């Protein structure tokens, strides 16, 4: 049974729909990547699941965590889950930490809340956590303020704080985007090591496909508020099917081989207030047919276990549900 | 190729952290940089935050006066800031920043923003300005109907196109791009990088491209300068630097780039944090994080040496184990 199962999650802000029915599962101890460009709804999915969106957001659908419903759940239910069972870390660590409180105090606060430890016990646990995330001389540096740590170390402290409640699931929202390349490598290493040691599940939200492939087993690609492709890392990277996924891979410049012109995806992400008819990617898609611009493709499980929402996918696959003979000639173009 | 810009012995210091009764501390942001930029080439500058990339760029443009050393522009010395000669020079050199929304005036339309430098420098008679603006907009791929839009109505990639059009309005010779695509999504990033490349070819621009994204730098730039704590640690043609990095820092930097589909195998993960420029380590500034450092590295500052046509600043250059590209990225 999956740890979290999201079904038909929809979110709209002031009547503008930004999530169009997300289905997504995270198994126990699994690391899943969530990839997409800014505004595609990858962060909103999890903010909505944890009830962290502002009041003007309308959320519908279902998010079940270990069998418990979280959407529009009472505050007490959510507060037991947040931090304790599901922890979240964000892109900018320095804005998530309180600048006028010592990091130890902030860390002990979450240990006290989620674990019920007090005094010397809580402090010892805080030192242990800082040690675990690789802060050198943790027992003395626990009394420093956030500004006395570098960006990479602040992110380590955020991770320590997220681990304070011994969560079953860690949601890392672009945890390495604001960090330098060499520090990013350190943090990815740390996340992989902690996951191996504690066995917690992780959702890694990022626009960096390379980082996702480094720490995840499975990944979902989102576009304009929908999951468009979902597969294991190997399958997704070796054989991307959705033209958007293919475009994303082609747009990443290569570090080896001959120097070449980059291959952008033409056009821009659609305005959520004026979504295009049919498939949201069709205006930018080279493979789009008339059918694509009128009918919205659903996310359909393929023979090889890949989930795909496309009528004209790259390579071989044709979505089973749409594979009538009349359509196949259309796909064969 | 003729030398467009030559920097020699460039240093910049900033005074920071003056305590109430204490001494102010100085931070050396750029520490003795020699660099030649030839007409028509694209030079990439890479390094972590705090390595002095942007400070170097500002001194190359003459926006900041260096604490020591000098910049020569087309063979003559760079005029002092805010003098008439300096102002006239602004036409020939332009700067593009990371955040286009911060660089644009939110209360001016796109067309007015692009026209403003033309008006300030009185480059064209008033009646020809709108024609030139339309031409520039077409060149950077903006639609004519976007002329009356405000920056907030545009997407990130379109805003950066407006900034580029504005920089090109003066037909500059020298363009410095400071992290121009870092704030953009991958698919849009590729559009803007291609645009910059095409413009560089068409307009015969000389470009300095600052970025922490090694993949973009490799595919765009002719020559790459790697900076660490205010100094150049390695310099060379882009292909060679990324295929066979010499300096241990460059090796770690190249290997730390996550490659799609290759996981974490074979990566050099550096220990420790990027050092504080205010407390520079002795000797080679990289030695506390270096896998190969020994006692000599702690005491001697390595000069930028030429070896087999490559420039690198490392005492152990000849004895380092050979790292080829395959070992680094796909091992």
Q: Which whole number gives the mean pLDDT of chain B?
A: 86
Please report the number of helical segments of chain B: 12
Quickly count the domains of chain B.
Answer: 2
**Helix proportion range of chain B:** 25-40%
Biggest sheet descriptor of chain B = 8 strands, mixed
Beta-strand content bin of chain B: 15-25%
Euclidean distance between termini CA atoms of chain B: 39 Å
Examine the coordinates and then state which fold CATH places here, giving the name of the CATH topology of the largest domain in chain B: Rossmann fold
Kindly give the count of domains of chain A: 2
Order of helices and strands of chain A: EEEHEEHEHHHHHEHEHEEHHEEH
In short:
The complex is a heterodimer of chains A (333) and B (331). Chain A is α/β, with parallel strands linked by helices and 333 residues long.
Defining key terms:
heterodimer, A: 333 residues, alpha/beta, Rossmann fold, 2 domains, 4-stranded antiparallel sheet, 21% strand, globular, B: alpha/beta, disordered C terminus, transport (chain B), Oligopep_ABC_C (chain B)
Question: Layout of SSEs?
Answer:
The complex is a heterodimer of chains A (333) and B (331).
Chain A: E1 4-13, E2 16-26, E3 31-35, H1 42-49, E4 57-65, E5 68-69, H2 75-81, E6 86-89, H3 93-96, H4 103-115, H5 119-132, H6 138-141, H7 151-163, E7 169-173, H8 181-198, E8 201-206, H9 209-215, E9 218-223, E10 226-232, H10 233-238, H11 243-251, E11 300-301, E12 307-308, H12 325-331
Parallel strand pairs in A: 3-8, 3-9, 6-7, 7-8
Antiparallel strand pairs in A: 1-2, 1-4, 4-5, 9-10, 10-12, 11-12
Chain B: E1 3-16, E2 25-38, E3 42-46, H1 53-60, E4 68-73, E5 76-77, H2 84-89, E6 93-96, H3 100-103, H4 110-120, H5 126-139, H6 156-168, E7 174-178, H7 186-203, E8 206-210, H8 214-220, E9 223-228, E10 231-237, H9 238-243, H10 248-255, H11 295-299, E11 305-307, E12 310-312, H12 325-330
Parallel strand pairs in B: 3-8, 3-9, 6-7, 7-8
Antiparallel strand pairs in B: 1-2, 1-4, 4-5, 9-10, 10-12, 11-12
Helix pairs in contact in B: 4-5, 4-6, 5-6, 6-7
């Amino acid at each position: 049974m999956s740890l979290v199962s999201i079904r038909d999650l929809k979110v709209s802000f002031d009547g503008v729909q930004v999530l169009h029915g997300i289905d997504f599962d995270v198994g126990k101890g699994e690391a899943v990547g969530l990839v997409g460009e800014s505004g595609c709804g990858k962060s909103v999915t999890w903010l909505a699941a944890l009830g962290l969106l502002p009041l003007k957001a309308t959320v519908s659908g279902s998010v079940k965590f270990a069998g418990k419903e979280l959407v529009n759940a009472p505050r007490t239910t959510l507060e037991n889950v947040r931090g304790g069972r599901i922890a979240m870390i964000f892109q900018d660590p320095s804005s998530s930490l309180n600048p006028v409180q010592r990091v130890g105090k902030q860390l002990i606060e979450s240990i006290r809340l989620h674990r019920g430890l007090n005094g010397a016990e809580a402090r010892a646990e805080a030192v242990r956590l800082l040690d675990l995330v690789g802060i050198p001389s943790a027992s003395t540096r626990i009394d420093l303020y956030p500004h006395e740590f570098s960006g990479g170390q602040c992110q380590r402290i955020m991770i320590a704080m997220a681990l304070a409640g011994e969560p079953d699931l860690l949601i890392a929202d672009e945890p390495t985007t604001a960090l330098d390349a060499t520090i990013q490598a350190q943090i990815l290493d740390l996340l992989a090591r902690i996951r191996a040691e504690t066995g917690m599940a992780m959702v890694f939200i990022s626009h960096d496909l390379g980082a996702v492939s480094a720490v995840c087993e499975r990944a979902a690609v989102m576009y304009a508020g929908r999951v468009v492709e979902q597969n294991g890392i190997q399958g997704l990277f070796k054989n991307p099917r959705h033209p958007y996924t293919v475009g994303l891979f082609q747009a990443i410049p290569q570090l080896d081989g001959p120097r070449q012109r980059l291959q952008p995806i033409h056009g821009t992400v659609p305005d959520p207030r004026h979504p295009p008819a049919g498939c949201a990617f069709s205006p930018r898609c080279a493979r789009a047919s008339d059918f694509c611009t009128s009918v919205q493709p659903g996310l359909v499980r393929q023979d090889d276990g890949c989930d795909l929402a496309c009528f004209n996918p790259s390579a071989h696959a044709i979505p089973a549900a749409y594979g009538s003979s009349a359509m196949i000639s259309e796909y064969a173009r | 190729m003729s030398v467009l810009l030559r920097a020699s012995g460039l240093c910049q210091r900033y005074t920071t952290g003056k305590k109430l009764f204490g001494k102010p501390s100085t931070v050396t942001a750029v520490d003795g940089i020699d660099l030649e930029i030839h007409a028509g080439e694209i030079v990439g500058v890479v390094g972590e935050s705090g390595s002095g990339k942007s400070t170097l760029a500002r001194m190359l443009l003459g926006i900041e006066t260096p604490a020591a050393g000098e910049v020569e522009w087309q063979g003559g010395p760079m005029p002092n800031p805010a003098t008439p000669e300096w102002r006239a020079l602004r036409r020939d050199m332009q700067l593009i920043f990371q955040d286009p929304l911060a660089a644009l005036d939110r209360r001016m339309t796109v067309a007015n923003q692009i026209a403003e430098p033309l008006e300030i420098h009185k480059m064209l008679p008033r009646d020809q300005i709108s024609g030139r603006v339309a031409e520039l907009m077409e060149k950077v791929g903006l639609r004519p109907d976007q002329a009356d839009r405000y920056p907030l109505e545009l997407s990130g990639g379109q805003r950066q196109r407006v900034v580029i059009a504005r920089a090109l309005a003066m037909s500059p010779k020298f363009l410095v791009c400071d992290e121009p695509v870092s704030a953009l999504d991958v698919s849009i990033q590729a559009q803007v990088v291609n645009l910059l490349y095409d413009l560089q070819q068409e307009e015969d621009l000389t470009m300095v491209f600052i970025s922490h994204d090694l993949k973009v730098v490799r595919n765009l730039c002719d020559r790459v300068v790697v900076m660490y704590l205010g100094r150049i640690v390695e310099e060379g043609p882009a292909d060679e630097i990324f295929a066979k990095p010499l300096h241990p820092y460059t090796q770690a930097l190249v290997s730390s780039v996550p490659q799609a589909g290759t996981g974490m195998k074979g990566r050099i993960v550096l220990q420790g944090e990027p050092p504080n420029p205010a407390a520079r380590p002795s000797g080679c500034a990289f030695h506390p994080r270096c896998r190969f450092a020994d006692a000599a590295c702690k005491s001697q500052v390595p000069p930028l040496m030429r070896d087999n046509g490559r420039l690198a600043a490392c005492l152990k250059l000849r004895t380092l184990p050979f790292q080829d590209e395959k070992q680094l990225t796909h091992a």
